[in-house]
Structures are given as C-alpha cells and as structure tokens.
Amino acid sequence: MNTKSDLQSPLVDGESPKKIDKTSSRFMKNASLNNSDLRQTHGNDHHEEEEEEEQLDNSVESDDSPGEQFQAREASFVEDLSTWRKIPVNNFESVDPNQESFMGNKIHTAKYTWWSFLPKNLFFQFTKLANVYFLIMMIFQMIPQITISDGRPTILMPLGFVVLVSMVKDIIEDSKRHSSDNRENKSDILCIPYPDQMQYANQEEKGIFKTLKWSRIKVGQIVKVLKDQYFPADLILLNSNDPQGVCFVETKNLDGETNMKSKTAHKFTIPCTLSDEDAAQFTGQIHCQGPNEFLYRFEGNMTFEPKRQEMLESESNYNGGDTTISLDVNQTLLRGSSLRNTEYIYGIVIYTGHESKIMKNSPNTRNKMSKIEKKTNMFILSLLGLELFLITFAATYSTIWNHTNYDNTNQYLGWTISESTIENSIILSFLVNLGSWLLIFVAFIPISLMVTLEIVKFFQAVFITWDATIFDEAKDMPAKVQSSNLNEELGQIEYIFSDKTGTLTQNVMEFKKMCIGPHYYGHSRKQEEANFRRDTLRTISETEELKIDDSRISGDSFKTLENTSVSDSNFEKGKDGITNVSFYDPIFFLHRDNPSNENYHRIHRFLLHLALCHTVIIEETEVDNKTQISYNANSPDELALVNGARFFGYFFCKRDNQNNMIVRMENGVEESYELLNVIEFDSARKRMTVIVRCPNNDIKVMCKGADSIIYPRLKSREFVQETDESLEKFAAEGLRTLLLAEKTITEQEYYEWEERYREATLEIIDREKKVAEVEDQIEYDFDLVGATAIEDKLQDDVSNTISVLKEAGIKIWVLTGDKIETAINIGYSCKVLSNEMEQYIIDKTSTDDIIDQLADAHKTYLKSGLSAHALIVAGDSLLKITARDHVKEEFLKFADKMRVVIACRVSPKQKAEVVNLIKAKYPGKTTLAIGDGANDVNMITAADIGIGISGLEGQQAARASDYAIGQFKFLRTLLLVHGREAYRRNSYVVGYMFYKNIIFVMSIFWFGIFSTFSAQMIFDELFYQMYNIVFTSLAIFWFAIYDLEYPKEVLLTEPKYYIIGLENMCFSTYKFLKWVFYAIWQSIVLIWISFIPFEEQGGTLWLGGNFVYLGIVIIVNISVMTSTNSHTWISLLFQIGSIVITIVAAAILNLFTFSKLFGTTGPQFLSLEFYYILLMMMMGIILVDSGLNYVNKKLRIRMMKIARGIRKKIKNFRHKKSTDSEKKKRKSKRHVHTGFAFAQEPGHAPQILDKIKLDNVRRKSMKYSMRSKVVPMENNDVMSRSTITISGQKNSNTSRNGDIIF
C-alpha cells in the first residue's frame, strides 16, 4: 500500500485527485459514500456555497472587526491549501521530512513557568506607575549630594514588601493553574505506542493497546477511548462497539450543552477496525485542514487499503485497491468532549495540545486591573505633574535667593568649599535643590498606598471566602477569590454576560403537568393541598362507587421521583426508578383507570402519543444480573416526555430490527408500532412528526410542537379554550409547554404523500424548500390530543437574583449555544424575560435583512408603550453584524437601550467577541462574565470580571476565573454587598492615602515660605518614617475591612444602593480633586496656626514642626472617624489609639538626645496655649470637614433620587407616546408566552433514520393500488439506487445526476 498520497487539494465535487483509483474517482464525483457522508465535503447545492463565499468576500472589505476576522479566517481555511496537512496514520516512519513536526499533546495554561516567573512578574509589577516612581526615588536617595537619608535607600524596604506580596499572591494563583495542567497532562489513555514511546507505556498490560499519558500522545496514532473517558486530543472516528459505528459524545465543555450528540464512523472504516488487532494493522494517510478554532467545521480525506475487502465488495462503487474517503465534522471527536453510552471507540489523533480546537478557542490568561487601579495611575501622573511643578518652583526660588544673597548666606551658614562651589553655580545649585525637594516629596505619592491596598484586598478576599451566606453546602465549597485586586470592580458592574446551561439552569427537565381534554392534571405537593385533593378524591370515589386503595391515595404510588436510575425491573406500580418526572395528582390516576370516565380514552391516546412521538434510543446494560434500560435522547425535553409516558404506564421498551417501536402497558401487554417516517424538529418548523402503523393497521400521524404552530393545524376547536387556559397557567409558573395532536390517514393517502416526499428529496434545486412543502401537506387537520408542561429546573433562586440585579441597574446578556426558542423559554423561566417586555428578534443571515430587522425594531421601540425591552440575536446574525462597522454601531446603539439581550447559537469564541464589542464601545463600563464550563472560559477571561461556577461541567471555568462560586444566586451577595462595599471602601482608602500624604508633604512645602524653600525638614526623621507605618495606618485598615454603610440585609433587599458604583460616585475626578483640596487648605491652616504663634514666642523649628505633626495625625484619624458608618469599640480604639500613641511617642522621644525632639515636647505639653491653639485648629478643620462630608452625602443621595426620577420619567414618556387606543390594541394582540419545550437538533438519530430510509426503499419496491395492499415488484434492482432523505438534515447523499449512494 502506498501511504503517501499525492493528493494536492481538498476533495471538491466533480474533481478527482491525481493517482487515485476508479473507486475513489467515482466516490469523489458523488462526494458521498454512505449515511456517514450525508454531510458532503463541498456538498451538493453548490450554488448556495457560492453565495456564502460571495458574502464572505464582501464581508472582509470593511475594516478589521471580530466578526470579519472570524469569517476571513474561516474562508481562508477552505481556499488556502497551504494550511492543509498530511498525517501518516499509525505509521511513524512515513512522516514527510519536508513538513514541520507536529505539536506535542502537552498543554500549558498557566501564566508563568519556573524560569519566566521572575522577569514576567517583575515587568508586570513595574507597569504600575507608583512602583516605577518609588524605584526612581530609591536611586535618588543614594546620591550623596541630594540625599536626606544619609544615602540609605529607605524606600527599598516598603517597595520590596509591596512587590513581594504581589509576587506571592501571583504564585499562589498560578500554582492552581499548574496543578490543573498537570492533572490533564498525566491522564491515562489506551493507544498503540510508537517504538520511541514503549519506555513510557505500561509494560505489564496485555494486548496491543498500552496505557500512555495524554502528554505522550502524537499525531497519527490510533487510540482507544473507553466509556465516560474524555478524548485526549482531536480524533477521527474509525469505529465503535456499535455495529453501525455510532457513538455518543457529551460536548458540555465545548458548547455548554449536556444533551448527547451522535457521531458516526465512515462505513468503509468500520469493517477495517472490528477488533484491537484490526486497529493495529490499520494504516493510511489523512489530508486535512491545519489546526484552526472552528468547532463545527472539518474537511479532509483519508486514503487507506481496506483489510476486509470481502465486506466491501457488496458496495456497487468499490472496485478494490486503495480507498479514499471524505471526512467531515460527523467523524470528528474533539478534545474536551467525553464518550457516553458507548463502550469504546477507535480514533486517529489529528490535532494535539495547543493545536486542538478547544485550546485554539482558549485565550491566553491576561492580567486584569481594576478601574480604581487604572485611575489611580492617572491620578499619580497628575500628582507627579503637580509635584514637578512645586519642586521646580521651590528649587528655582531657593537657587535665585541663594545666588542673590550668596555672601550673606555663605557667612551665616558657614558653607564648606565644596558646598560653596555648588551654591555659587546656578545650575549645580538648582539641581541639588531640585533633588532635595524631590526626596522630600517622595511621600507626596504614598508608597503605603500600594501596601495598604494589597493587604486590604487580601483581607476582603478572606472575608468573601468566610462568608457563610455564599458557602455552597451541597458542594462543600466556599467562594474562592483568585484575583483579589478586582474586589472593587464587583461594585461597578454594568453588564453581566451569563452562560445558560449549568449557570442559570440545571439542564434537567421534569414532567410536571398536563392538560387532556377539559381536565388539568398536576398539582403542588403541599400538605394542605394534598389533604384537599385526598378529600376530594374520596368524595369522587364514593360518588362513582369505586374502591380506592388508601395507600395509593396517601402517596407511595404517586410520590415525586427525582434523579434515580431507570430500571426495567422496577417498572411496577409505584414507578420507582423513573427519572425526569415530578408529578402528583391522584385524580389523574382515577380517570386513567376508570373506563367509564369521560376522559379515559383521551388519556390513553395522550399517553400513547408520548410513548411514540420521539427519536429516543434505548440502551440496555446488565447490572447485578438484571437488565436495566436507559434512554439516550437528543434533548432533555424529549427525555422527560418519554419518561413521563413510562411513569404513567406506557413504557417504550425497545425498537426491533424492523424499526418497530414496542410499547409495554402497565398490565404487561406489549404492542408493536411500525415507524414509517420521522419528520424532524428544526427551529423554523417548531414541531416534529412521526408516522406509525398501529397494530390494527391504522396509520397515525402524530405531531407535537409549539402552540402557535399546532393551533392553526387543528381540524376543530374542541377543547382549545380549555387547553389555552391551561397553557397560560403553565406559562405563569415558568413551565415549558408542548401541544400534542394526531390524525388517522388511509393507506392511499400515506403512499401518495410518501411518493411526493420521495420525489422532493431527489430534487436538485430548492430541495429543502420542496421537502418542507411536502411535509407541510401531511401536517394538517389534526385532532387536539393535549398539552404537556415541563419544568426546566433552574439553579436555586436564579429568578430572584436576576430580578434584583436588573433592579440594581445591571444589564443582563445571556450568551448561549442553544436555539432561539430554548433561550427564550429559559429567559421566561428565570425572569430575564417577561410578558411585559417588548421583544425584538434578529435572526436573518444576510446583512441587508439584518439592517431591515434593526430598522423595524427601532421603529417598534419608538412606538412601544412598554417600559422594558429585550433583544434576541442569533449567532449567525451576529457574525454578519460584527463584519460591518456601520451595522455593528447601529446594533450596539440599539442593544444599549435594552434591559436584556440574549445571543443564541454562539460559539465560545463569539461569546468573547460579544464581550469585547461592549468593552470597545463603552470602555468606561465594567463587564462581568459568568459561566461554568470550558466553553465559557473565553468569555470569562475577556470580561473585566470573570466568575466561574463550580458545577457539573467541570472546573475549567472556575480555574480560569477571577472569582469562583458554587451557585448563580451567590452573585447577588457578591455584587450588592461585597462588591459595593469594596468599591466604596477602597475608593475611600485611595483618596485618604493621597490626602494624608499630601497634607503631610505640603506642610513642609508651606514652611518653605519661612525658609526660602531651602528644603529644610521640620519633622524628626524617625517620626517621618513612622507616620505611614504606625500613626495613620491602623484606623484606615479597620475601616477598609469592616466598615459597612448599611446592614447587609438592607443592601440585599434594596438594590438601589448599588447605584454608587454604577454612577462612580466614590472615585471620580471630582472626588480626587476634593481630597487634594482638603489636604492643601488644611496644611495651610496647620502651618500658619502652628508657626506664627510659636515664632512670636521664640519657639524652635522642631517645636513648631512637632505641633504640625501632631495636628496632622489628629486630623487624618478624626477624618476616618467621621467617615466611619459602623462604629465599634475596636474602631474607636484604633482611631483614638493612633492619636494617643503619637503623643506618647513624642513624649518618649523628648527624653533622648539623638532625637530632634529632645527637650521640646515637654514644655510644649505643659503650655495651655498649646492645647488652646490645638483645640481651636481641630474644631475649625473638623467642623468644615464634617460639613463638607455632610453636604457630599446629601448630594449623593440627591443624585440617586435624580437618577431614579429620570428613569421613571423615561418610562412615563414611553408610555405616553402610545395612545390609549394603541395600548389597548397592543394589549389585545399580545400573547402570553407559553414556553415551547422542544429544542432538539435534526440529524442526531442516525440509528433510527437509517432504518427508516431502508424501510422506505423497501416500500418503494412494492406496488400499491387505491383499494388493495402493497404487492412486491419483480425487479428490486431499484433498491440499490434510491433512498429517502429525512427532512431536517441539511446535507444529503444525492449526487448531481440524481443518483443516490448509500
């Protein structure tokens, strides 16, 4: 066999590569070989593909944007052959030497390595301007001519402490990522090892496949993945334990969906890999796209020599020799997915490590800074500018004065020769004075700010972790803080981007209620209601003279069943072991079991409908020598419906080889129903239909779907009013509903329709449209069977949490991979949407149509009489929107007016792009992304704040997040309490730190007026160092950690207080300037009141300086005291104690000769004038300060009221814009949302659909007449050339000439 194919391009319809046999040529002409190739590489309907490519070409003409870049990249992988790669399969020696070696399978998601940590982290530390500033100041301190610390770098210790604390925090956070990487890299997988891997394989294992670590896997190797294992890399499926090569995968880590998806091996690879020995002998070459991030796209081909040719000889298009087949997304198994309900699969590794699609969709971890940190940098720059101005002024003034008065100053000060030389030189004198003032002003920008914030945020994070109200008892998990530097950002969130599955919902459906005929069944299991229903039941039973077993009434038979395994052996009365059902209503069972009841036959028809109208696959497993049956459903909704039928006595127990559906009744009787056709659900149809032949040979058409779709298709209006009333009740409870309908047709009607249907599937032009038209022809004149109500179980308290967050002024965006209908249903369930909201849906796929939809939506918005609005946009539409700047701008303007935006069918990369769109459009607004799966990591890392929920979808989101919580409801406490208070307190801390250092340094500056700005210090050097470390640190620490403006309960129930963060009331430029103003005017007062009285009394420099120092300490500590909202004895101890400690320290230093305060503070403390001046100064400053704070607080409250008033006026204005008649008209037209409860995708039940196709081919070979049954045809050759395609599958196996290859 020649393993090196000469293929030069991807397979294109109608083209054949060089050096390929007749079989392959024929295969390429038809572009498909079997059912696994229903999705053609460059399939049929080529004109549609050309239109898509033309749209892509047009879209890339605009400026670069996320959508444009995505589309351009996607188009390039179709057209650019240089991105394709050749992979030798299971043949390490045949690697192309001209091709670069493939990437290994080891992953690394941490920020740092052991060798990169120091340089990378230091670089990040010194991106903070404050750290750079103090580093420069430290260097200046060591210059002898300008030092004020005898050449000692006194700043080194606090600066080193700040950097060290940050480093330790980063090490702890990054070590968690390293642990995660190591766990994944060291996971085990079975593979056929290459010779150079044998030393790493488990030599004790018997058999061909050996266990290797994931990190050792190489491209081209064949691996064997067992049930419930994760795929170690991106694979091509060769075969599974299923005879048809079907396997089921769970992709929740990729797209967030927990319902299983089927993958099907190519029919030519199945007979080649029936055992481990076959797999070991399988060799070939894959020619496919290079690594890319497109999860739902794969194109390639594989050339190989079949080992079991006799199994392929029956294929009309196989002539022996090497075989080339096309590969598409239906054969790809992606890393991050797991194998479910399949014992094992064989697969070929195609993309490894960081080249796998999930890693291509995972962005690099980036450092995040809070807005306070960013704005602090800006304020530092402003202060640096002010500092340079002041020191330049002081140095210039001192230099001029000294030069002008050189002789007198020289004689008075007794300068040395070197000092005299410097002062005599204007330039040198200016530089020395400038350097001295620069070192004095080193405290102008407080280094203690960085230390204080780091420590404060650390303790805030500790208290978040310790908060018992956000501790998840079920998971034994406290809240985790992984980026404590973002604490204050939690108090400024304006946009929340949320995943749906696992975040808002549990993705667990439960059958709750139903409506059959005129009766409504299903009630709450409250004890009072249970008693009432029991009494009612007894009354009815007496009236109807029925004997009722009291035990059945009391409960065991009708108990709510949740989260237990499905067991065939348990299928008795009592229904133990049935999942997805939470139903209680004894009256239903009374009606079901009473043949004389008017609803008896309607109930049994309803239950039979539930048991038959679906595409559920049955899996049987042996447990303790007992056969247990479980269902594999394409959607959790369908699983709930089929389990509901089983719960009520109609057990769908198997499908036989003829695709008959076997239903076992509660009395043990089994009935067989032949499945004739399945018309699958899609988002346009909003319904699904099955056609079955009953045991009595009646042909029934059973349909289930949305009420808006089913109602117009009913033959009569019988029970419509009762059903509609029930639907409104269901909707009010947030339940998802379906209507069931059916009709009976004759043999003639069915075969006439089936012939039209077959012809439509063979059409080349407008096939999908014609198929849809034929499908529609049989879905009419139905009889209403009933309605179901399913609860999509939400995470605990999601509705209230979202309601409160919206009331706080936060805009909610839900980004989900689900269809529009599913997302809307969940929106209603969790109160994101309501019937009082105007909804706008953008779902078109062409730019012009999207522009029209936006224009229509804007017109409706302007005319709307509703105060709340919601926008729903499809992922495909979003791609077009982001590709054109003018469309993007209009979309963002419109979206900003919405209270809620829901984006559907978005990929993980699109989630991040949506977040980045908002960040780019509104850079001043804070975004938060929350999710629980690996598919949410992009979004989490893109947002300003990323929150991961530790849930069923693994820990990837939690590990990549800034904060990790157990449930969505904890977000309420995290934002409204911890976030708000962290923002308020940290804002005060930053402002206070600037304030207390400015007042400290400016006092020295103002003293320059008395000393000709000679850079003379007025404070003792030891006192100078202790100012930030001891005397002014304790009070602010306590405030920043413990102060609470309002009780926690008030903050949780009154979301209006969250507005301080949304309006940035605590950390604006105005607030900063207010702090600077306070510091400057108070320093002026302190200097003039301190030095003028003592100067007149002949006081010394240090006496006046000590007075100023004490005044500053008292003022700044009392400032904290007056700003504290929740005083305790500890807070007062720290505030008053700091002042007392300062006085005691001054008195102690008065006793030591080395101190400049020696002999000064004693007389000062004995002077009554000292206390009088101090008291008057303090009272004046404190009164003014308190007055300003009072006015500021009142102003803030006033602003909050104004903001609420403006919002209220806007609401009233919008209401007034609609006349009363318009409102009445709108109200009459408005339909209460009933929560359509069916969201499966087409094409995900190949085991069922393939059999139906074969059955239809068989039926086509039978003659029928209008009055007689089918007679077999003599010539059955046609069977090998035709088949029936089930609607809903986008790809077909029809070639251009109409031939069908199956």
UniProtKB/TrEMBL annotation:
Protein's membrane topology: Multi-pass membrane protein
Membrane-spanning segments: 122-143, 155-172, 378-400, 426-451, 994-1018, 1024-1042, 1075-1094, 1100-1120, 1132-1158, 1170-1191
Region (Disordered): 1-69
Active site residues according to the UniProt entry: 499
Catalytic activity: Na(+)(in) + ATP + H2O = Na(+)(out) + ADP + phosphate + H(+); ATP + H2O + phospholipidSide 1 = ADP + phosphate + phospholipidSide 2
Residues at which ATP binds: 499-501, 638, 681, 704, 736, 816-818, 905, 911, 935-936
Localization per record: Membrane
Record keyword Cell cycle present: no
Cofactor(s) the record lists: Mg(2+)
EC number assigned by the record: 7.6.2.1
Amino acids binding Mg(2+): 499, 501, 932, 936
Annotated Acidic residues bias: 48-66
Family: Belongs to the cation transport ATPase (P-type) (TC 3.A.3) family. Type IV subfamily.
Protein's UniProt name: Phospholipid-transporting ATPase
Organism: Euplotes crassus
Taxonomic lineage of the native organism: Eukaryota, Sar, Alveolata, Ciliophora, Intramacronucleata
